């Protein structure tokens, strides 16, 4: 089985258009600004686009690792493919981010790595904690 991954995107919403299966991505992002941690993020989608040379039933796995290297989530999504280009949308609900830093989304199809995408969680510094520079 030969797989060529084209992209992995994190966005607020993703869907395939009825009739032509065009991919629609809304609100693509690579970072979340958190007023306080832990933060439970209500909803987002991870989209992967790849070519495959083998038809059949597969398992798309997503492993999410926090900045300390600890696995915080793992999903398995059954995927049935034909030969050609595929786009898979994995929706996430109520994912909890406990610390600032880079969260890595690692995607595999069966045992073949499709790639990784990093989502940065950044704390928002309130103005009360900022110091004004005087020149």
What does this structure look like?
By secondary structure, this protein is mainly beta. It has one domain: Macroglobulin (MG2) domain (Immunoglobulin-like), CATH 2.60.40. The protein has strands at 3-16, 23-28, 31-34, 39-52, 56-65, 71-81, 84-97, 101-109, 112-123. The strands form two sheets. It has a five-stranded mixed sheet, with no helix packed on it. It has a four-stranded antiparallel sheet with strand order 2-1-4-7, with no helix packed on it. β5 and β6 (71-81) form a beta hairpin. The protein starts with a strand and ends in a 12-residue tail after the last strand.
Write a short abstract of this structure.
With 135 residues, this protein is mainly β. Helices cover 0% and strands 70% of the residues. It has a single domain (3-124), classed as Immunoglobulin-like, CATH 2.60.40.1930.
Question: What's the arrangement of secondary structure elements?
Answer:
Blueprint: E1 3-16, E2 23-28, E3 31-34, E4 39-52, E5 56-65, E6 71-81, E7 84-97, E8 101-109, E9 112-123
Helix-strand makeup class: mainly beta
Strand order across the largest sheet = 3-9-8-5-6
Oligomer: single chain
CATH uppermost class: Mainly Beta
* Radius of gyration from the alpha-carbon trace, in angstroms: 18 Å
CATH topology: Immunoglobulin-like
Integer tally of domains: 1
Determine the number of helices (DSSP H or I, runs of at least 4 residues): 0
Mean pLDDT: 93
What sequence of helices (H) and strands (E) makes up the elements? EEEEEEEEE
**Helical content, roughly?**
under 10%
CATH homologous superfamily designation = Macroglobulin (MG2) domain
Shape: elongated
- Please summarize the sheet with the most strands: 5 strands, mixed
CATH architecture: Sandwich
List low-confidence stretches.
Answer: none
């Amino acid at each position: 089985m030969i797989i060529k991954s084209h992209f992995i995107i994190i966005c607020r919403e993703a869907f395939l258009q009825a009739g032509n299966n065009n991919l629609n991505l809304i609100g693509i992002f690579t970072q979340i600004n958190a007023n306080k941690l832990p933060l439970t993020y209500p909803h987002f989608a991870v989209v992967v686009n790849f070519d495959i040379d083998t038809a059949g039933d597969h398992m798309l796995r997503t492993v999410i690792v926090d900045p300390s290297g600890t696995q915080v989530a793992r999903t398995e999504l059954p995927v049935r493919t034909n030969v050609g280009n595929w786009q898979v949308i994995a929706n996430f609900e109520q994912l909890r981010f406990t610390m600032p830093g880079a969260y890595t989304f690692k995607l595999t199809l069966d045992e073949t790595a499709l790639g990784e995408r990093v989502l940065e969680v950044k704390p928002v510094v309130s103005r009360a904690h900022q110091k004004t520079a005087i020149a």
